[in-house]
Amino acid sequence: MDAPRRLFLQHAALAAGGIILPGAHARPAGTSYPFSLGVASGSPLPDSVVLWTRILNDPLNAAATPAVAFSVRWEVAHDQAFTRIVAKGTASALPALAHSVHVDVRGLEPARWYWYRFMLGDAVSPAGRTRTAPAAQSMPGALKLAVASCQHWEFGSYAAHRHIAAAAPDLVAFLGDYIYEWGPYQLAHPASAVRTAESFSLAEYRARYAQYKSDADLQAAHLAAPWIVTWDDHEVGNDYAADRDERLDAGFALRRAAAYQAFYEHMPLRLVLARPGDYGGMRMYQRYDWGRLARFHVLDDRQYRATHACGPAGRGGSSSVTRACAALRDPARTMLGREQEAWLAEGFQTSKARWNLIAQQTPMAQSSQLPIARPGDGRFWNDGWDGYPVARQRLFEALGKSGAANPLVLAGDVHTFYASDLQKDFNRPASKGNPVIATEFCGTSVTSSSRPQARTLQYLEMNRHTKYGRSDKRGFMLMDVTPEKTTTVFVGLDDVRNAQSGKATLATFEVANGKAGARQV
């Protein structure tokens, strides 16, 4: 029996026992379980959290759910049996938003765990566990954070999410590529990838999210803790930059707007639009404080960036370039856009947190593909921060001027574990004149494939500021943040194709309060 159905029957039994009062709002007649995609929570503040679900009876057939609005009941409780309700209400699941439900529950207590659930007719969702952020002036003793990214359905199981759920984190940070835009619409992870059925329309992106969110292990990770999320490229299309895709499609802006709307419809997010209905301009960058222990600066490095430097004629997307590319030195080029840059600088300037975690998509550490013996040497991938070196320096300068304590950069995108020291000049050793500005931890992918480990070892030789690299393992990062230090564990799966895969600790790093740079322990 599948996990969502089993949970449904368990909750139905509770209802039969009188714990849940029968509701007056009927679910779609003649249909099956409406919570096939599970539930989720996220965007935690000291007094609130966003709850999410989507009414969908068949993940592969949205048309089976009638195109009418449903009144969905929700409850938040202190206990799993829901005998001590602290908040409840109803929310509309509208067909215009794919019958998704977003409830921003207010008036909660800081630093407290809660249980939540949804109900439609006699159907009861799985009960999720969530929590609020600590009070603004408090100093929590610890934060347990799981970090994940890049989960292409085609390239393996979601065993990493099963292990994330078992780790019982306080918070999960997902750094992009929650979906990939292509692959057959099927509910089993295949033995091998088939490049077909690329998503372009709103209906197709909705179907892609339904496919991914049908996975029981991914649902379990959402049940375990609140998430903070951002997107990368594959939520829309590979290596897009602002309003330009690989195909140079004149209609790409419409595709991007559809993809952004579908992202919102399937994530526990507060919606910020410049204009009502303008999902093409949906704001993704966010800031979250965990008391005075940590501040999360959550970035969007896709929507506002300059197009790729010195790309090949006739197409968009990424390529590798040398320093002969004059565009790399153009101060007008930006990765984040000027408004987001100013917002980030303000966030650094006002931060009172012990640790400043910059949660974003792609590695900031320089990563030359060729040895650098003299100025002008090197070859760089222009989709990452190496393609925007002047913008990277502006970020480093803003960080230095602000005095923000203990910056840690979190990254994904490249399907490789990396631990790196960030410096103003990556081509010189760290010194008093070229200090380590921040520490960067890049997580590998949940499933998506990477380069051979032998090539990654060559990268380490050519980029000595990167202290560790592992590209042959899929998995996630688990971080313990305390006032004294942050410990980061690189967790690798034994076999990504096996949903029951075991895991192993590949490497562990510590960063001490007041001392930038990772030390392997």
Automatic annotation (TrEMBL):
InterPro entries named among the record's database cross-references: Metallo-depent_PP-like, PhoD-like_MPP, PhoD-like_sf, PhoD_N, Phospholipid_Metab_Enz, TAT_signal
Domain PhoD-like phosphatase metallophosphatase span(s) in chain numbering: 145-488
Domain of life, per lineage: Bacteria
Domain Phospholipase D N-terminal: 37-132
Entries under SUPFAM superfamilies matching the protein: Metallo-dependent phosphatases
PANTHER family: ALKALINE PHOSPHATASE FAMILY PROTEIN (AFU_ORTHOLOGUE AFUA_5G03860), PHOSPHATASE, PUTATIVE (AFU_ORTHOLOGUE AFUA_6G08710)-RELATED
Protein name stated in the entry: Alkaline phosphatase D family protein
Protein source organism: Massilia violaceinigra
